[in-house]
Amino acid sequence: MERTALRTTTWAAAAVALLLAGDARAAWTLHQNQTAQGAGYIRVSAGDALHAVAVGTHETPDGNTSGIVSVTTDGGATWSSDTPDGGVPAPMGMNVYTWVEMASPDLAFVTSIGKLLVSTDGGSSWTAYREPEWRPLMGPTLQGVSFANPTTGWIVGTDGLVRRTADGGATWEPLDPPVAGVNLTGVLARDATHLWTWSGQETRNPDTGEVTGYEGGMLARSVDGGATWTVVFDGEPRAVHRVFMLNNTEGWMLSNASGGPRLEQTTDGGVTWTGMSIPAGRQGIADYAQDVYFFDRCEGLLLVEASANTIVFYTRDRGATWEDQDISSLRLDLPFPFPLNARLTTFDFASRDVGFAAGFHESLVTYASDGAGTSCGGGTGPGGGGSGDDGCGCRAAGKGGGLAALLGLAALVPLLRRRRRR
Asked: In degrees rounded to 5, what are phi and psi of residue 46?
């Protein structure tokens, strides 16, 4: 009789705790946007919790479009924007920026056409690296840059361009590409030896500009710093859009294809990949993949689009299941007759608690988590990520605190969290 009463009391208390527990949501805050409809950011990179650089396009007062580099040194509260040329002017001032990487809070790199911009003061000033045959706006187009540490990094680009630096970008060594002549569109380094590069592009109707398909999908991996490559696949009808590796073995890959976006996972360094489902969100079925990021082996975020609407998914079980996050508070300040939600294209995180996002209409957004908590297992620094499945599922979605903690029932209603790294 006493056991029955105790059991009834315990579950009643648990029910009350669940009712009183509030949503433990992360905060996405819009700090800046512009009115131009045809401009926006394509990539943002975080150096630390205070420093980040975003690159994209900006619509000038005369109606033309030019490149833009925006820098924050105060955690995203304010941003300064410019069109640096690094001392190598582009014809008619038409600077184009294709990617950005912050190797440290001070050291940043921006890829362009015919040059690489380098900053050693967190984006306050820029110099340009270029080789004798490179020409601004004429090529090659540098399309990806990644640093394993502040001294060792790689750039990739059109026509199989691969370069490696061991001195923080002062000099660059040419390397053979994984496939001759391929237009490499991205690169990711985890340490001085392990890296991945990829490619793929849209095909368009020449009369209407409408996307008709995808081609040239390629992924290659190296375990010797790019001296040699192993091609995982090549010539597939898709465009690899992003590869995120938590460590040298575990990672996720996003591709876009005619049948819709594809999310895949690897546990062997990218030798093999397993397809994962992308659920429908409150905005509908995803039709384009934008970004993916994991804070540890279990907890991560996925950024996709559905009919030009942004969906941010959160997982706490390695991507086996996803929860659609509510970012409806990101309403753009635009001169339209109706409110317009932000349309994000990229995010990056300085830690589990601090991140940056950007997108169309030159939107700049910060991310702040709901506080410290138990790790789901494994770090995200080079070589991090732990081993096994320790900690997966350590948080339940959207509940926490309040009476549950007082009653000692935190295990029934653990806090939702989302967090970081590159």
From this structure: -100, 130
What tokens were used for 50? 């205070």
φ and ψ at residue 389, rounded to 5 degrees: -110, 25
DSSP type of residue 91: G
Q: Say which CATH number the domain at 305 has.
A: 2.130.10.10
Contact 183, 159 (CB under 8 A): yes
Backbone angles phi, psi at 221, to 5 degrees: -130, 150
HSE toward the beta carbon, residue 184, CA cutoff 13 A: 31
Question: Is residue 395 one of the residues assigned to a domain?
Answer: no
Nearest CA among 344, 333, 117 for reference residue 355: 344
Q: Digits of tens for pLDDT over the chain (422 positions)?
A: 444 443 333 333 333 333 333 333 578 999 989 877 678 999 999 999 999 999 999 887 777 788 999 999 999 999 999 999 999 998 888 899 999 999 999 999 999 999 999 999 999 999 999 999 999 888 899 999 999 999 999 999 999 999 999 999 999 999 999 999 999 999 999 999 999 999 999 999 988 888 899 999 999 999 999 999 999 999 999 999 999 999 999 999 999 999 999 999 999 999 999 999 999 998 999 999 999 999 988 899 999 999 999 999 999 888 999 999 989 889 888 777 777 889 999 999 999 899 999 999 999 999 998 644 455 554 443 333 444 445 565 543 332 333 222 223 233 223 233 333 44
Total number of domains in the chain: 1
- Domain extent for 57: 25-369
Assess if residue 340 is contained within a domain: yes
Nearest to 223 by CA among 269, 261, 260: 269
